[in-house]
Amino acid sequence: MIPELGTFSTILALCLALILSVVPMVGAYTGNKLWVDYARPLAKGVFFFLTLAMALLAYSFQTDDFSVVYVAQSSNTNLPWYYKFSAIWGGHEGSLLLWVWIQAFWTLAVAIKSKNLPLDIVGRVLAVMGMITVAFLLFILFTSSPFERFLPNAPMEGADLNPLLQDFGLIVHPPALYMGYVGLSVAFSFAIAALLSGRLDAAWARWSRPWTNVAWAFLTLGIALGSWWAYYELGWGGWWFWDPVENASLMPWLVATALIHSLAVTEKRGVFKSWTVLLAISAFCLSLLGTFLVRSGVLTSVHAFATDPERGVFILGMLIFVIGGSLLLYAIRAGSVKSESSFALSSRESLLLVNNILFTVACAMVLIGTLYPLVMDALNLGKISVGPPYFNALFVPLMSLMVVFLGIAAFSRWKETPVSLLSSKLWLPGVLSVVAALATHWLYSGSIEFWVLLALLLSYWIVFTWGREYLTRLRIRKDWLANMTRQSRSYYGMLLGHLGVAVMIVGIAMVTVFVEHRDARMAPGDQLEFRGYTFIFDGARKVQGPNYVSDMARVRVLKDGQPFREMFPEKRKYTARSMVMTQVALDPGFTRDLYIAMGEELENGAWAMRLQFKPFVRWIWLGALLMTAGGLLAASDPRYRKQDKREAAERGSYA
Amino acid sequence: MKLTLLPLLLCLLSFPLWASFETYEFSTTHNEMRYFHLSKELRCPTCQNQNISDSDAPLAADLRRELHRMIESGYDDDAILDFMVSRFGDFVHYRPRVAPETYLLWYGPFVLLFVGFGAVLMVARNRRLRAAAVQDAQVTDTAEESAGVTPLTPQERERLENLLRQDKNL
Question: Which of A51, A114, A377, A511 is most buried per CB count within 10 Å?
């Protein structure tokens, strides 16, 4: 009964979403206020019924209702309750439901938070979001319903959640990532609404900005969580594999990063409007493309849980419709857009355009690299592999160039910046970066490594240029504290984001170059020493977990000869699926991680062990967290709401 | 349907679940570094998308043994990669070779970058020329109406000042 109610609830949501995508849109065109007013209640209705559907699915999981195919595939009576909860998005059907629920959530958020927007724009935006909801709900109901049943013979026991997914990472990574992916649909809907209404102006950019910032922040967080999860869960100690699925999330991120910068120019200066709209459309289309690549099984990937080619056809159709439709609309409408101001080659506008070029080229590079083997294969040109060596070789120079411009941009001004001003402000940070980079490198390690030196140079470049710019702002008046609090939240958000880039660069270079590892056969009592740490293997014993049995090793760690820590890596065998998994032992630290993974059991109680020393690896995710915080802080700037209110008031008084 | 579906699903989840590795001895640390480097550049031919260092497939283990043997017998990196490619095809190497069919892959992004920077130059120049042209027109025609601009009324001017003041800190 409960699963049928779930299906029913999903169908009701579909009906409401259908009305949502038609009635307010028609109302906006015919000027019928009553019809447009339907948009907000309908958005709430869709969200209500999808929340109900999620709750019913959660109930089926918690009550071990294995007559539901999806529950039987990805749960088990022995699974702890919190994994029974996160198992909702552990497979294809449920993750789509999560996707569309988040879509409904964003639609609701726009409906509630758009009090100050012109009604016809609200109607159009919500209608476009309704259309996206309709497409995904059709996909769920026709090809991948999580409420399908095994009837009349239901299994007694479920197949269990993939052990890899029985982890805190699964609880947080997909929702955060989807918040980002789907959040881009808000920017997309605003862009489409602006194209439809023909009102592509600075106001449009200001409405989109906070939404885009929040979506971007969640996308950043989601990708970082995925990276962190892969790091400790897969047992290899890698944090980025250039896997197609990772690329699928990186591409929208790159374009969204270009978009948040481009929106700034469009809002402040009224230029690049059609380019910004194109970015908004591309960002969301790329997240759809990512879904298609991941869910259709077109790409072989280590992440490809439960893929199905037939579903791919549906997503492909949707993709062609969305991309084709929005680009057609763009082609018709964008030509009539006029820029409102001019700018010189040496100006903040140009530098932000360079940022956009570099990010879109990087995205194109990732896209080419990801799809190239597919195209080669389809054209019978042979099977090739495009992997980390290719992506690193092209991505690193592009991003390094980006950071160089990022520093220059700190002192650029709108419209025109004299080159003499730039050079007078930049030489000191430049010299300081070189000195500081050399000194830091020399202090950390005697030998000079090119990549580390470059990374330190770029990081210091960001810190010193933006630091100097910040100091200049603090010196405007005598009172430093007042100067500090006078700066807007969007400004601090930007500083935080850029600081995050600097921190992340250090982490990436340090862990890549100075990682040290030992693969060793260790018998009880054996010890191994490197990087000032001594690892003593005390042997392994059997441990019984809730739904697994494990060999748990004990490794005592001495630091400079003094007892420091005990670490317990495990090798777990999950009973329901008889799958073996490595549970690594980690000793996280600000400047280094100790990382122990167990390999095979050898003779006489000896084990193959992989011990790793990973310097500054935490800085990668710390950088991403700073960027996330920056994005959220910028979005929370009260000026967006204040200006909207002012405009609304003015509109009211003119009407 | 029924339970027959479950084993099938298990097969679909052919995910590598543990890092597998041997404990090879190397004559020099340089050789050891080469081993780690090359084992990350070679793709396991039977896996979904993994290098031979991370894979636990039997074939990956064979390739690791072969790689270790070749390094210790004194082959250089190119010879080892050539050997692997001749045996398993281009598929085995994560760094595609530069050949006519991969020109687009290797050089495409640089062409895009070049075009992009060209576009920045063009856009900035055009904007400036257009701005200059508009200014000229305004100067020679003397009348602002000809450019479709009407002068601000005192009230509008006051509103503009207010707006500018408010925007100053942003």
Answer: A511
